Amino acid sequence: MGKTHEGEMICNVYIAADLLDIFQKLYEANYPIEKIRLVDEYNADDEISMRDNNSSCFNFRFISHTTKVSKHGLGLAVDINTLYNPYVKVVNGKRILEPATAEEYVDRSKNFAYKIDKYDLCYKLFKEHGFEWGGEWTDRKDYQHFELPTNIIEKLYEQ
C-alpha cells in the first residue's frame, strides 16, 4: 500500500471516459487499489484473478452459476479490490463465495483495508457516473462489482 503502480484495463468505449475520470480521482485521493492487470495474465480465470486481489473490467464469461453473459463480457462492468470485496450468493441452499479465499471479508461490519461500502470514495465516484453497485443487490452481494444498469445497455444496443 502507498506505492504507485501501473496497470492495464480493457473496457467498452462507452465507459472509457467515465473510468478515466473515476481512476484519476481515485489516484489523486491516494485510494488504495492493489493491482490492475488484464485477466489474460490469469488465463482468463476469474477465481484466480480475484484471489490475487486484481481489479479488472473485460473478461468474457458468464454470470456466476448462470448461462447469461456477464456485463464483464461486454466490457461494461468493473471489479475493484476483489479479494476484500467478495461475491456472496446462496445457490440451492448453499452459500457461494467468490473468491473462495475471502471468508474473513464477508462480514461487512468489520473495518479492513480495501473495503468498499456506501461511505467509500470508490462507491461514490462510480455512482456519480451512473453505475450500479453489486453491494446493494438484494438477491446476492457483489461488493467488488460496479456495472452500467441494464436499461442503459439495452439502449446502447438498440442504436
List keywords for this structure.
single chain; 159 residues; alpha+beta; three-stranded antiparallel beta sheet; 4 helices; 15% strand
What does this protein structure show overall?
The protein has about 160 residues and is of the alpha+beta class. It is about 25% helix and about 15% strand. Strand 1 (about 35), helix 2 and strand 2 form a beta-alpha-beta unit. Helix 1 (about 15-30) packs antiparallel against helix 3 (about 120-130). The protein is globular, with a radius of gyration of 15 Å. The termini are far apart.
Percentage beta strand: 15-25%
Low-confidence stretches: none
Distance between the termini: 43 Å
Number of helices: 4
Order of helices and strands: HEHEEEEHEEEH
| Main β-sheet description | 3 strands, antiparallel
> What is the strand tally?
8
Tell me the layout of helices and strands.
Layout: H1 13-28, E1 35-36, H2 46-51, E2 54-55, E3 77-79, E4 87-91, E5 94-98, H3 121-128, E6 132-133, E7 141-142, E8 145-147, H4 150-158
Parallel strand pairs: 1-2
Antiparallel strand pairs: 3-8, 4-5, 4-7, 6-8
Helix pairs in contact: 1-3
Summarize this entry quickly.
The chain is α+β, with helices and mostly antiparallel strands and 159 residues long. The chain has helices spanning 13-28, 46-51, 121-128, 150-158; strands at 35-36, 54-55, 77-79, 87-91, 94-98, 132-133, 141-142, 145-147.
